[in-house]
Amino acid sequence: SRQKIIAAVDLGASSGRVMVGRVGADRLELSEAHRFANEPVRVGDTLHWDVLGLYRGVLAGLRAAGPVDSIGIDSWAVDHGLIDDSGALVGNPVHYRDARTATVLPELTQRLGAERLFRTTGLQQQPFNTLYQLVAASRTPSFAVARTMLLMPDLFAYWLTGETGAEYTNATTTQLFDCGYQDWAWDLIADAGLPASLFPPIRKPGDVIGPARDLPGRPNVVAVGSHDTASAVVGVPARGGDFAYISCGTWSLVGLELDGPVLTAEARRANFTNEGGVDGTIRFLRNVMGLWPLQECMRAWATDDIVGLLRAAAQEPALRSVVDLDDPVFLPPGDMPARIAEACRRAGEPVPDSHAAFTRCVLDSLALAHHRAIDRARHLTGAPVEVVHIVGGGARNELLCQLTADACGLPVLAGPVEATALGNVLVQARAAGVIQGDLSHLRSLLRQTQAVTTYRPAGDGKAWRNAEERL
Ligand code: LRH
């Protein structure tokens, strides 16, 4: 039967990978060609991405993948590079956890109005939204020579093909995209003082971008849901529609898949976001701090023994100390154990006294935040939720999956870990014509081919309600 070999480049905040998918009408297999660390670089006061190092990893991975029929690229959202008239990169892209936008967000919100921003773009307020980053960039000398803004996956696609454009799902995360008119929000762009000429034409998942000039066989680069979360949600092996998802990695993106945006004042105040998905869907979700606090604790402790930490955390008493992970104090890099200890002290919770206790505190708090977001999403939409899908690296974390099931009082279906790469591959496979149909059809192929683990909720949830009240 007909089959394609498809490369998915998936760049996450802590690592990048090039995966190879083999896809046919009832076949979907994924293997890893190459994985590399993504280590940000601080220069002076600014936190940068090592974009050239990442591009080297992408090229090494694509060479290791061997001959492929097409290539798709996804990465974390909101960040961008600027290129000049000659196509050269202007400056080095800045990490979304950099502090340069701290004063820009309140300033622009004041000027443009929180209601107008939400009504137009459907987007949550985050200091790292591209809007605030671009306004910060526009106050630097090099901005004068910037001609085109390229979001991260579009920048790598440009380096591979020479073609510029802005992929739709990721463009919707900029807070500069009009979710009603489905185009750049030109009035907002003008009122923010940004040049309209910076914004390239929109491309849609499935569009061919162009051949990769320097790779043997010159395979086409094809647009996918280039926002990693858009691809991850394509990769949720859901049956039917009554599900919530948690795309769990550095962040936990917690929410629902809807047909249209929810633009109510309640949704805005709850800081929910409406991101554009594949096939015109909307990801109505909340950014929850995710595994970032644990990753940063591990960096502070100079350990990478996640298995040992989780085993020890599972032996700790449940819900001894919980913190509000929605607090922006946890956003920047730096001494995370100290910030968690301080948050516990302030809230009158026992301060964790071991690595295991800190780990348990983060996981209990994260499970609580998962529940809070799902509960909020249900209330804001009236949508029924029968089951919670956890995809991404967090699906491998048995303790977190069980705690999330317990906190939510719902079954959790965990996996696939590589949902993002699978969603990336599936959209390319459909564009190539080896598979057909809508998202529910793509998901039935996932259900046939990918392993999923079920966690049933234990207990009556009382301890979780009590902990919630303590927050
Ligand atoms: C996850 C993610 C998330 C964004 C954040 C910046 O990787 O793309 O959806 O909010 O990074």
Automatic annotation (TrEMBL):
Keyword Cell cycle attached: no
Keyword Plastid included in the entry's annotation: no
UniProt-listed SUPFAM superfamilies: Actin-like ATPase domain
Cited InterPro entries: ATPase_NBD, FGGY_C, FGGY_N, Rhamnulokinase
Keyword tags: ATP-binding, Disulfide bond, Kinase, Nucleotide-binding, Rhamnose metabolism, Transferase
PANTHER family reported for this sequence: L-RHAMNULOKINASE, SUGAR KINASE
The protein, known as: Carbohydrate kinase
Organism lineage string: Bacteria, Bacillati, Actinomycetota, Actinomycetes, Micromonosporales
